[in-house]
Design the sequence.
């Protein structure tokens, strides 16, 4: 009887603690959010699991109760019953009586809705698109975006930088809209930016055909995996396993756009992380819902260069060659050695089964296990929160670019590389300022000005190269760091930015359309002794000259020329 009483006492005590906890109280007083998540990939794939994990982690940190509803939009599997338009209508009917607050989807699904004109079915919801962007999806559509830009350009530029002898890049991907867009973009990229580089885009193939096609490439080739590999019929494969089989047959360098391939022998790349992106998107969504908003400004995810340390060593790539913000990981899995308490538990259980001590021991074991589990969960949340805070600390909240402090940190690193590098080394820095931007704010309001700044940042992201680093210094002033770039290359790149911005049109919520121009100052830093302040003074001088010479133009020079006080300046109209 004493044991029975003790057992119930401990259970009651635990329940009282749980009921009185802040989390439980918060849950009872908060209004639940109902969020529908439309998945483009199978639920068992690592990508999908990572995306779901990111959503749940952000929700648990916020203490806002959320009911998630997950739907897998596999039109291949359902094509005998549904067209995409019918499927979208069916889902809306299915959740008609559910008070949905928001809908998450991937770009493939968003594009399907735009193509089949079914986006109006969600017009009263906050619709969030998470993933890599399509050029066909524009900010004027009724969606909010958390996207990664220029993944293809960044990784092709990375391959060229780390493997200058490579003459061919073989790109393999899936059969969905993302893969098709990447395929089209790769061909455009080869024609416009890398005419000397052969880019081959593999069509969807069966697994063994993929392996043979990639393993039998010439010695001067490199491989880039873009998305999950799919068959011609749209069936998704175990892409990490296929990548590993390819690398067992060839020593060619392999790069990727999605992070699940790290650990298979893939070197790395500018990678899209589904968990981090979904986590950030969920944070933004809950904040918007709390503020009563049905849409938020586009969030552009920063470059995330990640590399497998062992693969770098295998291909004899010096870490000094990597982009400044690169992260190194170990491909070796971390094996957790949990304490095996089962046997001891059973032993004690058999010995004390008929006594009150058995119940005490069992309850203590349960409580201890719960404490260990909560401790591990808290550690994981602290780590996730730390990473999120680190990202927030270096990111401009409006445009998604790096902020002033982070840009200056990268500039200091580039100056250090210049001082410690070989003679003749150089890099370029550009400062961009929107002309007459104050007029837009004064006439249309600051929300309109914010939309112009977001569009401008997005256009700059699209027009620059992978290694280039873009930051917002404040207001309408931006800066771009261009490693290993001479005066002619820098003026060519920034002149293209200037001319493209001049043709840009931004549609405002008021129905008005505005256009902007930008003045650009460039300095090629070829003087290792300069300080950060001196470099910024020189580039600011070039920007000032561009402004005073009529705006909407590029003005450029070298620090060696400026220091010698020679009037060798190049002006481009």
Sequence:
């Amino acid at each position: 009887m004493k044991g029975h009483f003790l057992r119930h006492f401990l259970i009651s005590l635990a329940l009282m603690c749980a009921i009185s906890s802040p989390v439980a109280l918060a849950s009872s007083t908060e209004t639940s959010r109902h969020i529908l998540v439309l998945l483009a990939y199978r639920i068992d794939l690592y990508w999908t699991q990572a995306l779901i994990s990111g959503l749940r982690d952000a929700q648990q940190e916020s203490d806002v109760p959320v009911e998630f509803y997950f739907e897998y939009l596999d039109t291949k599997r359902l094509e005998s019953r549904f067209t995409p338009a019918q499927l979208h209508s069916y889902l809306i009917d299915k959740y008609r009586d559910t008070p949905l607050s928001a809908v998450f989807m991937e770009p493939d699904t968003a594009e399907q809705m735009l193509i089949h004109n079914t986006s109006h079915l969600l017009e009263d919801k906050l619709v969030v698109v998470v993933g890599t962007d399509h050029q066909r999806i524009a900010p004027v559509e009724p969606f909010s975006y958390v996207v990664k830009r220029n993944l293809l350009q960044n990784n092709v530029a990375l391959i060229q930088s780390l493997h200058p002898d490579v003459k061919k890049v073989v790109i393999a991907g899936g059969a969905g809209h993302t893969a098709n867009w990447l395929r089209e973009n790769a061909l455009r990229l080869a024609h416009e930016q890398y005419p000397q580089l052969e880019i081959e885009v593999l069509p969807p193939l069966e697994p063994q055909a993929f392996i043979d096609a990639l393993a039998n490439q010439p010695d001067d080739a490199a491989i880039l995996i873009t998305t999950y590999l799919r068959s011609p019929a749209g069936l998704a494969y175990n892409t990490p396993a296929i990548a590993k089989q390819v690398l067992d047959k060839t020593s060619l360098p392999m790069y990727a756009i999605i992070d699940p391939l790290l650990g298979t022998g893939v070197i790395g790349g500018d990678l899209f992380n589904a968990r981090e992106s979904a986590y950030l998107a969920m944070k933004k969504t809950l904040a918007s819902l709390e503020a009563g908003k049905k849409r938020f400004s586009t969030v552009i995810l920063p470059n995330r260069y990640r590399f497998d340390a062992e693969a770098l060593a295998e291909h004899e790539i010096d870490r000094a060659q990597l982009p400044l913000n690169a992260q190194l990981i170990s491909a070796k899995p971390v094996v957790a050695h949990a304490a095996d308490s089962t046997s001891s538990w059973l032993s004690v259980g058999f010995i004390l089964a008929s006594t009150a001590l058995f119940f005490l021991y069992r309850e203590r074991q349960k409580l201890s296990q719960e404490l260990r589990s909560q401790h591990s969960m808290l550690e994981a949340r602290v780590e996730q929160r730390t990473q999120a805070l680190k990202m927030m600390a270096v990111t401009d909240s409006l445009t998604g670019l790096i902020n002033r402090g982070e840009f200056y940190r990268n500039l200091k690193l580039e100056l250090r590389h210049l001082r410690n590098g070989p003679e003749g080394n150089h890099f370029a820095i550009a400062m961009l300022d929107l002309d007459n931007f104050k007029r837009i704010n004064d006439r249309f309001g600051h929300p309109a000005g914010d939309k112009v700044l977001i569009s401008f940042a997005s256009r700059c992201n699209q027009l620059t190269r992978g290694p280039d680093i873009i930051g917002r210094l404040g207001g309408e002033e931006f800066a771009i760091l261009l490693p290993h770039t001479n005066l002619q290359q820098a003026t060519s790149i920034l002149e293209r930015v200037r001319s493209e911005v001049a043709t840009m049109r931004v549609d405002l919520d008021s129905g008005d359309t505005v256009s902007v121009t930008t003045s650009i100052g460039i300095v090629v830093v070829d003087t290792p002794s300069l300080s950060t302040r001196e470099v910024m003074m020189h580039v600011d001088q070039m920007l000032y000259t561009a402004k005073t010479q009529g705006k909407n133009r590029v003005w450029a020079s070298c620090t060696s020329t400026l220091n010698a006080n020679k009037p060798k300046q190049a002006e481009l109209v």
In short: The longest helix spans residues 356-394.
